[in-house]
DNA sequence: CCTTGACAGTCCACTGTGGCATGCTACCGT
DNA sequence: ACGGTAGCATGCCACAGTGGACTGTCAAGG
């Protein structure tokens, strides 16, 4: 009823439903894979949006299947709403990086501890970059150009972050030079 | 009472209060300048957190001044809580970039429109980079090393994004080659 | 037959956002 | 001197988004 514009999360769900009816669970899984690297969503929200969108007539729930699976399919109104959303100016990007907060307040923190945090995060980013680059190498062909473009963003982002990590020791009051040049991963 | 761990926003406020008593308004302004590029907060939330933290004994409200100004000052408990927060492993970073969503669903969108969105965002990032680099050039000296480190992150991030924008035309089904090769900045 | 584990959805408390409303007061022009 | 207005300062609300706990379902295997 209320024709307030969609939010980006709901719109994405409609986008995925173009490929055919899916359940909330499927949508979460799909979203994680396809847009998870630059758009976060949670189960709770997905189910909530689906309920709301059904009430608004943008999707239609089908018969409940085996495991309480409730598939939703796109309606014409939903297709319409998706198009309208897609044509609106996308909002500004948001970064929230807790590590940068910790660094910003680094004056109050033991340098060794800070160094440990930094090392941990660096290895996370290194792993992600490796992932992305594998994807780019392997099967970049079977991706559509749009997916390749967002993947490229990821690669460049991770590379930049890693370079920053490399330069950090020159910028920050260092750990008192312990067994530091061993980038070991202890888990 | 409830000694649940602080959230990052509340903790940041405590961090800023180390410099002396401040009002909610001041805290918002400070936060915007100091951590605004990688941590967002809103007035509403700041006031809510302050109220909650006062109830928890982490800050103490002073006399109400001229314009209903209500300065808060750090208590010992607050200082303690801040330290404990700062020593906890900072969480993973979050990026939410609506433009990437639009691109990911670009198949459903008119290429010209997509190109327009891209151009608009590119100029935003260009402007931010210019800002950061001015800051780095000018007065990088009067910044503490920690601020310089976070600024460096910003610079590298924006540079990476801009490079990505440069490469996009090679990845995406292009706009039908309108007056495109003029990277004009209209403002 | 019963446990285990992946699947599927729900609920709740909290965090975070943006806009509206409301007063206050310093300053400005007349 | 005085009325307007711009910016200061806080509060409130509805909604978006998060993460964890919880319930239930089915399939496979010991």
Please write out the topology.
The structure is a homodimer of 187-residue chains.
Chain A: H1 8-17, H2 24-34, H3 43-55, E1 59-61, E2 72-74, H4 76-86, E3 94-96, H5 98-104, H6 111-139, H7 145-171
Antiparallel strand pairs in A: 1-2
Helix pairs in contact in A: 1-4, 2-3, 6-7
Chain B binds a DNA duplex (30 and 30 nucleotides) through helix 3.
Average pLDDT level of chain A: 88
Distance N terminus to C terminus of chain A?
Answer: 52 Å
The percentage of residues in β strands of chain A lies in: under 5%
- State the shape of chain A: elongated
Oligomer: homodimer
Q: What series of H and E elements makes up the topology of chain A?
A: HHHEEHEHHH
Give the helix level of chain A as a range of percent.
55-70%
Strand order of the largest sheet of chain A: 1-2
Could you characterize what this model shows?
The structure is a homodimer of 187-residue chains. Chain A has 187 residues and is mostly helical. Chain A contains 7 helices and 3 strands. Chain A has a two-stranded antiparallel ribbon. In chain A, helix 2 packs across helix 3. The longest helix of chain A is centred in the last third of the chain and has 29 residues. Chains A and B meet through helix 1, helix 4, strand 3, helix 5 and helix 6 of A and helix 1, helix 4, strand 3, helix 5 and helix 6 of B. Strand 3 of chain A pairs antiparallel with strand 3 of chain B. The structure holds a DNA duplex (30 and 30 nucleotides).
């Amino acid at each position: 009823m209320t024709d307030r514009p969609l939010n980006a999360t709901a719109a994405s769900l409609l986008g995925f439903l173009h490929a055919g009816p899916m359940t909330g669970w499927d949508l979460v899984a799909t979203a994680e894979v396809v847009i998870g690297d630059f758009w976060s969503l949670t189960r709770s929200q997905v189910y909530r949006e689906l309920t709301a969108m059904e009430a608004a007539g943008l999707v239609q729930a089908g018969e409940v299947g085996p495991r309480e699976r409730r598939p939703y399919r796109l309606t014409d109104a939903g297709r319409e709403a998706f198009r309208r959303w897609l044509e609106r100016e996308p909002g500004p990007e948001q970064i929230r990086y807790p590590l940068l907060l910790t660094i910003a307040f680094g004056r109050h923190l033991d340098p060794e501890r800070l160094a440990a945090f930094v090392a941990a995060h660096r290895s996370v980013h290194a792993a992600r970059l490796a992932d992305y680059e594998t994807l780019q190498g392997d099967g970049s062909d079977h991706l559509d150009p749009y997916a390749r473009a967002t993947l490229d963003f990821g690669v460049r982002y991770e590379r930049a972050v890693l370079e920053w990590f490399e330069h950090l020791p020159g910028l920050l009051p260092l750990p008192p030079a312990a067994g530091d040049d061993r980038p070991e991963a202890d888990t």
